[in-house]
Amino acid sequence: MCAKKIKSKKWQKRPSKSGLPPGSHVYTGQNTATIPEMEVFSYNTDFCHRNTGNTQNIIPATQEGKLWVNINGLSDVDLIKIICEKFGVHILYQEDILNVYQRPKLEEEDAYLFATFKSLSWNEDASQIEEEQISMVLFKDIVLTFQEKPGDNLNQLREKLQTEGSVIREKGSDYLFYRILDITVDEYFDLLEKLGDYLEKTEDEVLNSPGEEQLMKIQNSKKDIMVIRKYIYPMRDLMAKLVTSEHFLIDSKTKKYFKDVQDHTIQIMENTETYRDINYSLKDIYLNSMSQEMNRIMKILTIISTFFIPLTFIVGVYGMNFRHMPELEWVHGYYLVWIIMLIIVIGLSIWFKRKHWF
Prior knowledge:
The chain has helices spanning 77-87, 91-98, 155-161, 167-170, 173-208, 212-244, 255-317, 333-354; strands at residues 37-43, 48-53, 66-72, 105-108, 113-123, 128-139, 142-147.
């Protein structure tokens, strides 16, 4: 079976928004085929109701308790616009929700908080990072989440919301806001662990059998690390802003939870820098391994050439066309030349062995 050829990762081409006025509703992502689906949790200490669909009609007309509205998929621009206008989200933040190439950030308004950040996961089949933008809007007793595509790691939140007596039901919406951030940051830890295993495997391959495939893996790992660094640094700033925020929507008791997530982002940053150094060293190891392999090949070729230099000299001398060469008349001259050449080969072999050249 042929080995799978590792290709270099290409940067994703962004759809252009050049020339459009601020606040233009344009979805810039690639996931245009998926029909957005909504799920709405209406919950309190005593109850939790869950509704799903793909229209705004599943949002309760009157709010009882707290509300979590989650939208999976951003391709239906009109639906996103209607939901945002229903809850009073500014038009510029609506644009940020649809622009999936946003830098992670937190914005504070009088009535709500707006946050956008990246969820990263590891694709086992392609051995690369997959990105997804998540935007959140926190109101009093309301959380809106906008996810780029279906499928997430929030099932544990859904289960907790539907479990009687759970902490999420008892605490305010800012705690749900924190839990979504915490789960997203925890994904970074899982991602780094898998990336570390990938680097360790690549290091073994580089040491044992360096080749073009291993060099491509090193380059791909470099791009993966750049992606993590690109999003974890602003994520740390986002968490720091939440920790120091005086906004009325952030309860003082919840700030210690945000501080814990902030500590996690710092730890992820440190681990990312460590893996970046490891990846740099892998390239050095690859170059050194290739250099050693080349030196080994040149050494073998040099030893072979050394064996043939005296032999070539002997056959060259007796290959000359002089008429008077005494040795040419010897009866056993042919066998004698062979004996001499064998003695030279054996002698050189013993000498090289004593020098530990092979």
